[in-house]
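Model it.
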Amino acid sequence: MDITLSGLISSLVVVVIVMAMLGLIFDITLRVLNERQEYTSFYSEIQYISDIIDNLFANSVSKIEEQDVTTNSIQIPFYKPTQQYNDVVTQKKLLQFNTANKTLVFDGKIIAKVDKIGSIEFSATSTENSTIKFVIIKFRHKNNKWEYSLPMLSALSEAS
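Modeled.
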């Protein structure tokens, strides 16, 4: 068997090309896996935040009006007990998402901190008499890769 210099060089070139292709395949696979992990983390944070908001809506006591919903916040009505017997008043508590430090704030207290969500926007769909059917919460990824809209019913909304 004759070993020639041109045969060695051609076999080295083939090995280098095969290794480069394997490296590219490995790099593409890692990128796809990282993208899927980011995607999964984003939607798990949406699930976490939507569970908190759903719990707050379930504990609210009256309908959320259209004027209570702004782009960055929503006012949720709750009962506030008074010192008098059989006397309860409704108090609206503010739920908002602070984009500067990525926290969900309810009634002045931080109730959740997120990493993958860049912004949360609230909007309301209502009927002609300003009764809200449901609140749409729009979640955006921190790099604006993905956007997810989620309709949520308030405790006594028109649709429930």
